[in-house]
Records
---
Amino acid sequence: MQRPLLLRGARQLLTLRGPEGPRRGADCLDLGVINDGSVLIRDGRILCVGQSRRIDNLAEARNAVVHEVNGAVVMPAFVDASSSIPESALLSSRFLDIAFAHGSGAISGRAPYGVFRALAAAPPFRASLVSVLDVRTQFDEAQLARAARRRLAQELRIEILAHTRAALHFFHSLALPVRAYSAPASNPDWMGLALAYGASTLEVNLPLNRAQIALLADSPACAIVTPAAAETARGLMDSHAAVALGSGFGTGAGATCSMQAAALAAACEGGLDLAEAITLATINAAHALGIANDFGSLEAGKRADILVLNLSGFREMSDYNGVNVVSKIYQAGTLVA
């Protein structure tokens, strides 16, 4: 058995610990900050987080390999709730590598069936990929069933009003979470239909009316926004809807491959506090993707996917727009970059 690993002495440790489920309203401002914090890791999982002097006194810490992170900000890896995977194998690999280098530990990438089939045969990527299968209006039932059975897809993305009731019943039979969206000129009632159907997430790319915001606020579904729709996030959060942030890579204006840049865009252009943007880009995004048991916060039992930022306080991130402030990346407790 390997010796435990101790990340000791973070100036700010952003744990993102808090209530179960995605954070709503004022809870999004609470990053669970521990000053002079440490993280104890064993077998790729977090054993304990807390103030350094308390962690130092644990029996397991006395035998640990110590990595000093004095003066730095330590936080969970970002989770990208929405991006588009390029169809070129070279470009998809490049995108995933760059996103990982900028701190994305898990990435929700949408693509058609052929792309995920090719990726399944490729060498594993450093970032964890949550595959979102783009379902076209004309689709092959056998192909979708095969994608679900072989776990090529972990989620279905559908334009909710473009499919018949029979098609929606078929999608439901695949037992995969559904991400719903609507074309710009579509019926505004699409959101009500998506929620009635049981969609777990809804892509929100356009301004919403009060009735739509109220529907989301009263539902367990999570709205996913990207930098292009950052202004929409403010109204949703003020209504206590659950909101997650994606990079929007490959999907249009404001898209980026860096979740640092996406969080800053949400803060600068969407009127969010930086703490809120970080919440949307970590624990809320993890809940939106159904991976919060492993990702999105620094808590006992979770995977030790951890970033060390070259900052003395997380709010300094605003001073480094366009700069990658990640200095170290730990993946399942192993220093990989």
Note: The mean pLDDT is 94.
---
Amino acid sequence: MEASRVIDLSTPLSDKEVERLKAGDRVLISGIIYTARDSAHKRLVDLIEARKELPFSIKGQVIYYVGPSPAPPGRAIGAAGPTTSYRMDPYTPKLLELGLKGMIGKGKRSQEVREAIMRHKAVYMAAIGGAGALMSMAIKEAEVIAYEDLGPEAIHRLRVERLPAIVVYDIYGNDLYTEGKKKYQIG
């Protein structure tokens, strides 16, 4: 794996943008992204299965797995650190099939999700866990657009400027978690 690069990304993502990303790349994301955790993912997939319209167009979008805290005065949002991603794994392949291009969270994903990432030309990125206040500084606007009853787990539409993340799984099957460990193994 080559040394990491820093790449500016603008949403929505295209296949061409996703194709140039490699595990280990550092990215700075600008544009509109959406938040959703497991309860919201279940509702999205239920809508898909019922052939109903989603609360936002999923094609080319990025979902950040976060349940932000309330915004303090003068800020768009409170702390916005990533949540553990595997809880979204049962729902992710269906969303990727419909055109989801990026996910931001923390932790490993299932083999099924990794295969769907490659098949549907998407990317999984990790954000720094424990740095919710830092992450929130890149969020310039936040608006609940669906499932307000879920509180912090409602779907938010965020406008971000240079939100930092690291590509973990790319469309080529590269895995930063595995490759990163190899760098430090002896023998």
Note: DSSP finds six helices and seven strands in the chain.
---
Amino acid sequence: MTGEAARIAFLDWLGQERRASPLTVEAYGADIAGFLGFLAQHLGDEPDLAALTALRQADLRAWLAAGAADGAGNATRARRLSAVRSFFRFLARRHGVDNPALKLIATPRSKPPVPRALATEQARSVTERIAEMSDAAAMQARDTALFTLLYGCGLRIAEALALNVRDAPAPGADGMLRVVGKGSKERIVPVLPAVREAVGAWLALHPDRRADSPLFLGARGKRLDPAVAQRTLRQFRRLHGMPEHATPHALRHSFATHLLAGGADLRSIQDLLGHVSLSTTQRYTSVDETRLMDVWRKAHPRA
């Protein structure tokens, strides 16, 4: 069995039996394809199961070193190593491939990046002025609804674009939004009046309001491509002199950071963001250390 055939079998198992999201399957596939491509050059031939079993520590270290030479940071190389380890665990269970060398390779350490949020006025400017990037009324309403949703509900761009018309928040004062996040994990997010109004204005112009139609449509009537939303905000930030980290995902960071600044507790923010681990949410504490110190001084009896 060739390494490529084993890769395809692994991805089928990952998607069908483990029910991993398409984006996860795609990411694992790319990382393992890169690994096998390196081995083909490093070993002089396309690797098969026997070659994968015989890999030495030196071979694996050479692969990680090649990634570093190409500019991959520790976080990227750690992710690639994790994907390869998962691949080898699959091979061990299904094909008896046992390579102890992989267990001896240390994971590259990296410091998780601190989320880069926008200032409150910058985030508000995006939601209030993003419509300037289009001349068509429908596209103006769509973009305003999308970016208001990202900032107002803390959604990932993929989560927002996966919504259908039936998922749109109800117009009532207690409107809630059901979001399917990473790992198909569902969460319920409250929706601000401004978000409901923006989404409602877009739905009034939506060309296909059937329940199973994508909530956000592209120019050709298909589900909006994330690259289009990213390009729109990239053009906006350059036009208005905003920082380069002003991206759709920065609006999610801003949602969390501004909630923390307003007094929300980390557990609540964790639930709203859909983080599995509280440690992921705790990264936002370093963004707003001044406010935390102020709370500590006011609340601690010995402060």
Note: The mean pLDDT is 90.
